[in-house]
Design goal:
- This protein is of the alpha+beta class and 159 residues long.
- The protein has helices spanning 2-22, 39-46, and strands at residues 48-56, 59-66, 75-81, 91-97, 106-108, 110-112, 117-123, 133-139, 145-150.
- It has a single domain, classed as Immunoglobulin-like.
- The protein is built from two helices and nine strands.
- A hairpin with an 8-residue loop joins strand 4 and strand 5 (106-108).
- The radius of gyration is 16 Å and the shape is globular.
């Protein structure tokens, strides 16, 4: 019964995150001036801890973790920079937990052109599996997919 409750909670949170993300899209007219940073861009630049470079299916990515430590049942934040710029044509997904995604919510990356990287939010399973990692799926424009993992940071304080 507890597992069913956790799954329902994760689904509700994932739906909420998806709904919130759609409200932040801007029209082409509002993005014509890049001189002013939006609050999201300012936050994005200040609360990340580098996870270093990692190989995901032969693609060398730079990763950073935001929002402090990964905690069971809470949202985690991963920032991923690809070694090429295709203006967001690549689809990037990430989740916390194990490769098989058991009890994990999968977040879809939102491309940030001002940083040329992807912001991904995902809720950590509760309880966290012992070998929890960030798992990343990169789907290129030609439909090829690559999956790999990135060690997460635990026990870091929020800025």
């Amino acid at each position: 019964m507890k597992e069913i409750q956790n799954i329902i909670i994760l689904l509700v949170i994932a739906a909420s995150l998806t709904a919130c993300g759609n409200g932040n899209q801007s029209s082409p007219e509002s993005t014509s001036s890049k001189a002013e940073a939006t609050p999201k861009e300012e936050d994005h630049a200040h609360d990340e801890v580098s996870l270093g470079k990692h190989d995901i299916g032969g693609i060398s990515v730079e990763a950073a973790q935001g929002h402090g430590s990964v905690e069971p049942g809470n949202e985690g934040h991963l920032v991923l920079k690809l070694p090429y710029n295709d203006n967001g044509a690549t689809i990037v997904r990430a989740w916390l937990g194990t490769e098989d995604r058991t009890l994990s919510s999968v977040g879809k990356g939102e491309y940030a052109p001002s940083h040329d990287d992807y912001d991904i939010h995902a809720v950590a399973p509760d309880p966290l599996p012992a070998n929890t990692k960030w798992w990343v799926e990169i789907e290129k424009a030609d439909d090829t997919k690559f999956t790999g993992s990135i060690p997460l940071l635990k026990n870091i304080s929020k800025p």
